[in-house]
Amino acid sequence: MAGVSSCMKYSMFIFNFLFWMCGCIILGVSIWMRVSKAAQEDLNLDSSLFSAVDLMIAVGSIIMVLGFLGCCGAMKESQCMLILFFIGLLLILILQVVAGILGAVYKSQIETTLNKTLFEEAKKLQAVTQDSKVFQEKFQKFEKTNQCCGLVKGYEDWGSNFNTPYGNFKICECAQKDQNTDLCIFYSNRYIYKKPCSVVVIDFFKHHMVILMGIAFGLAFIEIVGLGFSMSLYCQIQRK
């Protein structure tokens, strides 16, 4: 132990344990966004919109590995582990800056990109093929859950299929408790939801992209501290 500060050693261990926990959180949030049925399966959204999320999944996974590596390096006073931790952490920091920039770019362009995608998907609501009917049934559940109607232009997106009955409920029909609220309008002899579902989808991406960006830049500060800790401990071990 000569030449190695116990305070520095255990501070490094605690830091890396917390760092590992942060990796678990960012990985969990990113995977949750990536597998969201509402945004990905029901609407068949363009996978390019998830590129920032995919990058954060990779970052979260590597952070967990580095956290474990840093803990072992500190407790065993391994220069090899510490230098690998330093290099890996530096690469993670660079990746997170890229992810943050990518997220900021997509945040400003997300509405345009989604509208193009949703406009193409809206055509399926008017189609009569078997595959389209499967999509229509799934989409009606999405409408009911999120109190919306159509994808881009509201009820107009359904075209001649608007009055086609599906199961025990009609397309875009408001729940009885919502009929006298601002959520609904009266059209074609029934109350229907007036908000297009594109609003729901765009809000989903904007909200969760802000969360991911906040996590990424928050971790950046912690990682800079970690770089300082690991290099300081590495130098102390080298002088021992």
Task: Please describe the structure with a list of short key phrases separated by commas or semicolons.
single chain, 240 residues, mainly alpha, two-stranded antiparallel ribbon, 6 helices, 2 strands, 3% strand
Quick synopsis:
The protein is mainly alpha-helical and 240 residues long. The chain is built from 6 helices and 2 strands, in the order H-H-H-H-H-E-E-H. The chain is elongated and about 85 Å long.
Care to describe what's here?
A hairpin with a 2-residue loop joins strand 1 and strand 2. The chain has 240 residues and is mainly alpha-helical. It is built from six helices and two strands; from the N terminus they run H-H-H-H-H-E-E-H.
- Counting helices, strands and paired strands, the structural category is mainly alpha
> How many beta strands in the DSSP annotation?
2
| Overall mean pLDDT | 79
- Percent range of helical residues: over 70%
Order of helices and strands: HHHHHEEH
Task: Going across the biggest sheet, name each strand in turn.
Answer: 1-2
Uncertain ranges: none
Bin the strand percentage.
under 5%
Helices, by number, come to 6
N-to-C CA distance: 8 Å
The major beta sheet can be summarized as: 2 strands, antiparallel
* Overall radius of gyration: 25 Å
Shape: elongated
